[in-house]
Fold these 4 entries.
Entry 1:
Amino acid sequence: MSKLLTAVLVSTLALALSAAPASAHKRERPQPNYVYTATIDCGRGPVTVVSEEDLYAPLVDQKRHRVYYPIAWDVTAGGMTIKDEKPGVPRLLKRLAKTCSYTDGVATGTVTVLAAPGLGRHSN
């Protein structure tokens, strides 16, 4: 029962974080401009993900069609350390988040994510 509740909460958050404002006119969505390729490991082996420029843009596993939503970063790149947490994330969802290792060839450290299994393509 708790796994079902967890899946529902994570899916609800994923939809809330990625929901765009409703519009009276349907517009064609621009294709994501993936500029970063990285490897994360959340405890089940390395996963290659792509993401856009924004620090909190979804990390997309194109092979398995999974989306990971970053809520915190602790990485070092070129002698600089970036420690940041997304504001407004409810405490309950923080408890459901996973801390994963992260490397993209330049930055190395950890990223804390909410995983949205089985959602397929994401929307911004």
Entry 2:
Amino acid sequence: MAIFNNPYPILNNSSGNFKDVEAEFNCIISNVEFSESKYKIELRAEIINEPILEEMLNNGKIVFAVSLDSKPFYRKVFRSNNNPNTVKIEIDYREISSEFAFELSPRLLTETDMIYKNENADFPMCDYEFNLSARQKLAEHDKIEFVFDRAYKLFDSGPLITISRLPNAQTPQNGTMDIKLDDPFNIIVFVSDKNYDLIKEMNRVNQKSLSTSLSIPVLYHALSAIKDEPDNFRELEWAEALNQTYGVFENLESVDDVLKMTDIILESPLIDLYTYTIKTSD
């Protein structure tokens, strides 16, 4: 049955105007990766049972485009280039909020003003010509919601660093914190009751400040220890997870290497740094 909720024929799998010929506009995510500080997403489009739109796409009269939204503020449209059926998206992670969630809206858009007629559209739209402007949609796929997995999923027990509050009246033996590196699952940082609350609040309000005051010294300490005695860490899951991504067992030969690796790891959005526990009295 024809649907006339569009002013001209639009190919849409759920509410379009090509039901009689059972045409479809399908899109899939064909590749996803995070590298070089960028999210990279590749989408492929396929037009089924609609040769007119397929010919227009191959001839450059229409273009495959994907509108990408990431709350609260990011929105951008990416277009196909060398391959008319493929859109490649690259986004610097610093442009995106900490949610790493995306909403993708694939469409086929007109490139220029045109007179459009499609004999495969449902009756009576198949008999009419339509004056269209540039960037009007001729096909639309349902929105695709996508979330990047964060790297803490590599750690079965949770995030990389555990902040542990010492029992009341106890203080760290080494100044403001004690760092435990021999736990199999996490780097554990023991802090006083007062500092525990301050750190937890800082992580909620301003993670960049926390990275400066806590993450840098903790991670530098851990990587320095790995540099000096890598064999002591090969059986620890948190160290092995870092090695799989950053090669920490082989790439730390100097203090300068440790500093550079600290920066690289802390710049990655794939590391979820903190979880919180309360240490009971022994």
Entry 3:
Amino acid sequence: MPTTTDLRAALRDLADAAPETAPLPGHHDELLPVPRSRRTSRAVRFGAPALAGALVVGVVVAAVALSSGSHRSAQPGTSPAPRPTAHLAQAGPMPLTETVFDVVGLPGATVGGVSADGASQQRYVSFDAFRTDRNQADVQVWAHGRWMPSRPAGAQDVTINGQPGFFGRFTVPGNGRVVALAWQYEPGAWAVVTWKTTSSKADLTRLASAVRTGLHLRARLPFRLSDLPPGGTVTALTYAPGAGRQGATGELTISYPGRHRALLISVSPVAWDLGGTPTTIGGRPAWESGAVLAMAGPGVSEAVLEPTTPDYSGDSNTELTKAELRSIAAGLTFAPNVKDPATWFDASTALP
């Protein structure tokens, strides 16, 4: 059973598995070094068995701004005094609460969940049903003007679904300088694919040709929140519907710029052995270990609230107080069946 140290290490792995924050519009990826966001191969490896089935589905909602207030949902038969409401605001051109692409018609492939951050979206594709993370491909779709690959010398022209692109060795956010294939799925908007076990132009062309963009698939989360401390910005949302060891999972990242801290909230159909001091929150068993709070959900499921630094290094010296974490946990509602995405909440309505 994973320990607190294991969990933190896994969270760091997720951070390292997440792509970098997108360059400002008009910049080339190799000209502008940018800090890592929660994704190195693009946030939560939705597909890697490391922490989740299609990866520890984290709900990485990136760049969704919350206004300076929060509220609890009114209970039936009550009329609470009006309080400022936290509203979602799209901070980037890429939707966070809906998926804009899929990978279809690829024999032997299992498509993982989605990670989004306002600049791009990412999905992992496994060719061994996510039993390992070795035979995986990575698909990243970027919003207009948010990333432009630097074409290397000797690159070969390709055409993907009627759109121009190139194949060669170049820098891909979160993956470094690798053999990859990039194409403009729309003028000024790029997508890129890499594949761990092959550098074949034919294989990457086959993968890229299976990508369908321009979709509007609603993201869903295994939990919803009714209370958040003011001043937060949802910066990442990741969800996985259940392929892999950990099963269906969702994760949310909320940044508090004024405090130089971030908060990870993850819900999965497993229970981490965090240890710590037992307590009760909202009638549910809970445990506090340092700055980490874990709360039991229905069946064998659990919510973990982990304060960290904005770069996800795992530093728990947070300015978010225990009282704030308890309040967030008390306002967290689990989906009726965390293992069944059909019972999950629409991501667009899962935040206060």
Entry 4:
Amino acid sequence: MKTLASAIGALVLLILFGYAFNLYKRHPVDSFCKGVSAADTPQDVVARAKLSGLWVNALDENNTSVWVFNQKAPWWRYACIVEFKSDRVSGRQVILAD
């Protein structure tokens, strides 16, 4: 019985660690996305992301969206997608980008 309790405890700790690590990896992008204002231009978003130490993909030809990633590595990667219409923010969301 003691072994079963230890195994369940270890499993619970492993799940909690995974959840906490996910929150840790998502936080920089989530904070960045919440700070994007409706008046920001694509260039403003890119400049602020780079100052924050986040990785930005190349702008598309029409400047319709900017993807800001927490890191380049393909594990636990989150992205803030900022969409634009007429060079103003029309939407933003955070996604799991793996």
